[in-house]
Amino acid sequence: MRDDEPAEAGAQRVIRRAVGAALAGLEPGAPALVALSGGADSLALAAAAAHAASRDPALRVGAVCVDHGLQAGSANRSEAAAALARRLGLDPVLVVSAEVSGRGGPEAAARKARYDALAAAARDCRAEAVLLGHTLDDQAETVLLGLARGSGARSLAGMRADQVRDGVRWLRPLLGVRRADTAAACAAERLDAWDDPHNADPAYLRSRLRHGALPALERDLGPGVAAALARTADLLRADADALDGWAAEALASAAGGDGTYDTAVLAALPQAVRTRVLHQALLAAGCPAGSVGAGHVRAVDALVAAWRGQGPVALPGGVEARRDCGRLAFSPGG
Description:
Layout: H1 7-24, E1 31-35, H2 40-55, E2 60-67, H3 74-88, E3 93-97, H4 105-125, E4 129-131, H5 136-148, H6 153-156, E5 162-165, E6 168-171, H7 179-189, H8 205-221, H9 225-254, E7 261-262, H10 263-267, H11 271-284, H12 294-305, E8 313-315, E9 319-324, E10 327-332
Parallel strand pairs: 1-2, 1-4, 2-3, 4-6
Antiparallel strand pairs: 5-6, 7-10, 8-9, 9-10
């Protein structure tokens, strides 16, 4: 931001540059969709994407508004966000419904429903990417949530700016932008953003973190805490990517044609790599994704690195792990 530049105009320029860089990486003519809730983050993202599309005829940018049905009037708000997207010049503009259900609490269920709805819309439109409005503040909150849960490096690595999951490319151009800047950019664009009351509801963990824990940390430790947490995520992501790559190679080296693994090869690996190898092996053996915890991996690791003649280890999905003649084997449980 230039010293003589108004803050609102400076924020608008920074966001336009970040979004333009993300869109520049797409194939010419391939459509992209902005996930638009009507909040300041997604609205600033949509405005910047519309600006980029207006300057480059090869860019095709639309929007998708997800109605979770969790609040009174949610359908009207989704339609209002869609109308804003159309006024910005985005095309196509879709309004889709999401069915919120399942395990993990209301926040996790709503997030899964939202991503499922966005992914379905992207596939229907054959969009190359979906743009999400996550900011640096969201990244910092994600890291703190991972710390509170005692998660490993992969969880603490936060969100990726460019990620392919469920067959959809997810882009987060605003991960280097503060939440205050998206509000300033909306002001510069004369756009009225919607404030989701759930974002201030202390019943939700992320809301308590956003309005309580993180401001307290910034007050007591200094205003750079959020940025430092985001940098930590970047560093841990690079480390986790390197370890995961090493683990994939080690898994292939230890694997036999019969689906078993050489325990001598596994035991020679550093623990940080070996536990990743075993996690991948458990998933390959049929353990449901998301059900494998650290305790499961530790129990199987004991068959490799702390062998004392112990019996089979029961795993999620009815899978059993056992050691037999120097091989680690998996089979359906009894």
